[in-house]
Amino acid sequence: MSPYFARRHGNPIGTLIVERQFNGVPRIIRASGTRDPKLADKYAAMLDTLYDPLDRLDILTAIADGVLPIKLVHHHFTRHTLHRLPTVEGMTPLTAMAEWAKTADGSDRYTQEMGHTFKRVAALKRGGSINDLPKLIEGLRRVYRDRPVGFNRMRAHVLSYLNNTVGDDHPLYIAVRKVKPYPKQRSRSPVVLQPAEALALVGRAPSTDPGAVMKRHQEELWSLLTTGMLPKEYFIDGWVIRREPGRVEVHGTKRGGRERVVPLVEAPVVPRVTGRYVMRALQLVRPEMVLKDCRNIYRHWLEEVGVSPSRAELYMGHGLSSVRDLYTWHDVKPYLEEDAEKLRAYLGIEARGVLEVAR
User: Fold this and answer.
1) H or E element: which one contains 241?
2) How confident is the model at residue 49 (pLDDT cuts 50, 70, 90)?
């Protein structure tokens, strides 16, 4: 059927109507947005081509449902850029991703991380849809250039969402995947500090090089060094100092064994800043170090003072069960104060902040 005008009292009104019927698609009766018969005929011919030979029933359905204007489709059709069309799926609001994360398969920690990612992405463009994801992810890549692992994780979360909702052959998935991840960082040699080096780093011992002494956040770094906590455990997950015997209960969440106790060498300080600030202060004087190195250094110190390998594994959270398990607790309880004394003697420090807490 040729395009026609709707009429009122015999007079044409509005723009030309394009009407088409195809198998497998709702009947298309849509205003063309033009009063030019030649242009309206081109729109109608485009619909025929979309059906056969292009077999784009998805676009035809979107036109029939009023999701895509014929004029917009024709704009991309003539430029061979149909892949850039905002599809029906692509009209989904960005805020829907966080809701999807609540029901996604995976561990609680994984779905929680995805939820945080999706909320962060949605905040970048209020009222946006998932059609905006390629540009948003490209922008995040530039913002996270100094945090490549964080960006790669966020990109993976978005790809997981798209794969599960629109499929890995969808233009949106392909466009996001084209945003290159940062290359994986090469493994590096672990950093080991001797007691004198560690004490000098945090300003608790004389240093021959004043430029090798942290100017800020020394106490937070020392707390990591003397407990073996991961940065996330220290800054986010939480820990508690207990009495009789003096110990630090670490509430790690990575696995069951990370819920553990460690000797109370010194009372760790409650962090006053986030790990990012401590990391920056550390790398100003030790650019080869990261906060996780404190954990490896702690393990090295345990070996140096003669803590048995099995007990060191429990302090590091490598045990098979939680420290709350009765067998594990009886394994470490008699040695907590003894091991704390060994570490203090090795480091050459007093029991500062311990007696007040551990009485």
Assistant:
1) strand 239-242
2) very high
| 3-class DSSP string for 118-162 | HHHHHHHCCCCEHHHHHHHHHHHHHHCCCCHHHHHHHHHHHHHHH
| Amino acid in the structure at residue 183 | P
In angstroms, the CA 334 to CA 331 distance is 7
Measured CA to CA, the distance from residue 63 to residue 47 in angstroms comes to 9
Tokens describing residue 190: 């672990």
The model carries a pTM of: 0.53
The C-alpha atoms of residue 88 and residue 63 are separated, in whole angstroms, by 10
Residues 289-310 pLDDT 10s: 999 999 999 999 999 999 988 8
245, 268, 291, 314 from 257: Cα distances, Å: 20, 21, 21, 8
CA 97/CA 204 separation, integer angstroms: 49
Quick one: CA dihedral 336, 340, 341, 346, positive or negative?
A: positive
From the CA atom positions of the chain, what is the Rg in Å?
31
What is the C-alpha to C-alpha distance for residues 214 and 344, in angstroms, rounded to an integer? 21
